[in-house]
Design a protein that fits this description.
mainly alpha, Serine Threonine Protein Phosphatase 5, Tetratricopeptide repeat, globular
Length: 258
């Protein structure tokens, strides 16, 4: 009888426990269900766009390693001289991998930012962070198209299985999508951040759009984007070109002081 009573009480306890509404989303820390709700979360997400690994391939010091000046003095670049560069070469798959990593981060923000709107964050603030995401995505697709032409196009979150089923989108269809992202970045990004840490700006979006248009031989688009950038009235050419090739100037650039 005693054992039966214990069994009954244990079953009753489980029954009551099963009726409890368990909220598995933690409210005291960041999580995928509630992220992108506050400006702090948007800022933290956008800061990830500036990881050096996403942009290093286009930096002056990294591009130098592919010049004649470097390859003929360094056996590590023998694949260039032998014509054996392929998809397994580190620089190749690293560029592909890092580009899609940043694209995924940008897509995640663009999909999740609606939560910030629902939470009452101002449209002006939201647009700035959206602009940074559009700029990052445009730049990375611009790189991918320049190097590979037709590439898979992801503009939303998808599983690995879904991504593996995708084919490459034709280059002719990709180019207008990149321009569209640059245009949104131009619309949303500020000309300057004042005394705050520098992030992507309207001028940067104009300049990168012009560069991409040059690569794609879209001369009129390139000319207009470059002219629009100049018309912002905050950029000028260096009067003394010789100072741009000094070692001290290069060190300042490398350290992010210029």
């Amino acid at each position: 009888m005693k054992n039966q009573l214990i069994t009954f009480m244990a079953g009753l306890s489980l029954a009551f426990t099963s009726c409890v509404d368990m909220d598995m989303v933690p409210k005291s820390q960041g999580n995928s269900e509630s992220w992108y709700t506050t400006e702090t979360e948007l800022k933290m997400a956008v800061n990830e766009f500036y990881i050096l690994g996403y942009w290093k391939m286009d930096s002056p010091e990294s591009m130098e390693q592919y010049s004649d000046n470097f390859t003929y003095r360094n056996t590590n670049r023998k694949t260039l001289l032998d014509g054996t560069l392929n998809g397994q070469t580190y620089e190749v798959y690293h560029l592909w991998q890092q580009s899609y990593k940043l694209i995924a981060r940008a897509n995640s923000l663009l999909e999740g930012v609606e939560r910030a709107r629902n939470a009452g964050l101002s449209e002006e603030v939201i647009n700035q962070y959206e602009g940074e995401a559009y700029f990052a995505r445009a730049c990375k697709y611009a790189d991918l198209i320049f190097y590979w032409g037709d590439v898979p196009y992801l503009d939303k979150y998808m599983t690995i299985t879904e991504a593996e089923r995708m084919g490459r989108k034709p280059k002719a269809e990709l180019i207008p999508l990149v321009y569209e992202d640059f245009d949104k970045a131009i619309e949303y990004l500020p000309v300057s951040y004042g005394s705050e840490a520098e992030h992507f700006t309207k001028g940067a979006a104009y300049a990168m759009k012009a560069r991409f248009a040059l690569y794609m031989s879209d001369w009129e688009i390139a000319a207009k984007a470059a002219k629009d950038c100049m018309d912002l009235g905050i950029y000028s050419l260096e009067a003394d070109f010789s100072k741009l090739v000094t070692q001290s100037y290069y060190k300042k650039v490398k350290c992010g002081k210029i």
